[in-house]
């Protein structure tokens, strides 16, 4: 499981469940566990008092066959485009979730 520290886990769970087509598996009064598939991995959202300062040190990379469509869907859900990157054989878009946590959406070939 990967856990994201955030101020409002209940609100952030709304974004991530829609983004990952998943559901909240457990609600532990401020700590939410979202199961992305029956065989894992899980995403945890944990309430903390501190604000996010700077770039998060761990982030998720999501992969799709249609990056532009997926980025459009995620921005409609509340994500913000941060950057676009490309290397030979792969292109990705860097986004932030509604709480400012960075993640990427990649597509082989670009």
Written account of the structure:
- It comes from Actinocrispum wychmicini.
- This is VOC domain-containing protein.
- InterPro entries: Glyas_Bleomycin-R_OHBP_Dase, Glyoxalase_6, VOC_core.
- It is a single chain.
- With 110 residues, the chain is an alpha/beta fold.
- The chain has 2 domains: 50 residues, Signal recognition particle alu RNA binding heterodimer, srp9/1, CATH 3.30.720; 52 residues, 2,3-Dihydroxybiphenyl 1,2-Dioxygenase, domain 1 (Roll), CATH 3.10.180.
- It is built from 2 helices and 8 strands.
- A hairpin with a 2-residue loop joins β6 and β7.
- The relative contact order is 0.21.
- The model has no long low-confidence stretch (mean pLDDT 90).
Q: Give the helix level as a range of percent.
A: 10-25%
Quickly give the structural class: alpha/beta
Question: What proportion of the residues form beta strands (DSSP E)?
Answer: 35-45%
The ordered string of helix (H) and strand (E) elements is EHEEEEHEEE
CATH class annotation of the largest domain: Alpha Beta
Q: What is the name of the CATH superfamily of the largest domain?
A: 2,3-Dihydroxybiphenyl 1,2-Dioxygenase, domain 1
- Read across the widest sheet, the strand sequence of neighbours is 1-4-3-2
Radius of gyration: 14 Å
What low-confidence regions span 5 or more consecutive residues with pLDDT below 50? none
Number of strands: 8
Q: Give the overall form.
A: globular
Distance between the termini: 28 Å
Domain VOC: 1-108
Pfam family, one: Glyoxalase_6
Organism: Actinocrispum wychmicini
Protein name: VOC domain-containing protein
């Amino acid at each position: 499981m990967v856990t994201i520290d955030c101020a409002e886990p209940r609100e952030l769970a709304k974004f991530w469940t829609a983004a990952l087509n998943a559901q909240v598996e457990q609600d532990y009064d401020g700590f939410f566990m979202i199961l992305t598939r029956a065989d894992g991995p899980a995403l945890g959202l944990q309430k903390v008092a501190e604000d996010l300062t700077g770039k998060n040190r761990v982030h998720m990379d999501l992969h799709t066959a249609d990056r532009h469509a997926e980025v459009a869907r995620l921005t409609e859900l509340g994500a913000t485009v941060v950057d676009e990157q490309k290397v030979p054989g792969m292109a990705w878009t860097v986004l932030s979730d509604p709480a400012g946590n960075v993640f990427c959406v990649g597509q082989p070939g670009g």
